[in-house]
Amino acid sequence: MEKLTRNNRIVVVTKILTENPNKVIGLSTFAEKLNAAKSTISEDILIVRKVMEKLNLGSIETIAGAAGGIKFIPGMSMDEKKSFALELCEMLKDKKRIVPGNYIYI
């Protein structure tokens, strides 16, 4: 495989991480797939980490050790969390959700 530009590598790293949330992925996986050195991949991951955190999209955790790597943990801003909770409350207020025994159908 030909060498990719930094922008292309960042896109691929982001895609892999977002498609595999909470899964540890080793740097060697990225290095092999992108035909790049681990040090180069580490720099790319740092850029992705900063952008994800700045936009409240989640965080990237570094796992140390032989079986280590990185893990993407999805996230939301506080406003998005509040909006989701309010929307959920509104849906659960619907009287049609009450089933025999006074249980709320979820």
List the helices and strands and how they pair.
Elements lengths: L5 H14 L7 H8 L3 H17 L3 E6 L5 E6 L3 H15 L5 E2 L3 E2 L2
Antiparallel strand pairs: 1-2, 3-4
Structure report:
This protein has 106 residues and is of the alpha+beta class. Helix content is 51%, strand content 15%. It contains four helices and four strands. The protein has helices at 6-19, 27-34, 38-54, 78-92; strands spanning 58-63, 69-74, 98-99, 103-104. It has a two-stranded antiparallel ribbon. Strand 3 (98-99) and strand 4 (103-104) form a beta hairpin. Helix 1 packs across helix 3 (38-54) and helix 2 packs across helix 3. The protein is elongated.
Keywords for this structure?
alpha+beta, elongated, 4 helices, single chain, two-stranded antiparallel ribbon, 15% strand, 51% helix, 106 residues
Q: What structural class do you assign from the helix and strand content?
A: alpha+beta
* Main pleated-sheet profile: 2 strands, antiparallel
Output the helix-strand order. Answer: HHHEEHEE
Number of strands: 4
Report mean pLDDT, rounded to a whole number: 91
Question: So what's the overall shape?
Answer: elongated
What is the C-alpha radius of gyration, as a whole number of Å? 20 Å
Low confidence ranges: none
Number of helices: 4
Distance between the termini: 49 Å
Q: Report the helical percentage.
A: 40-55%
Strand content: 15-25%
Question: Strand sequence of the main sheet, in spatial order?
Answer: 1-2
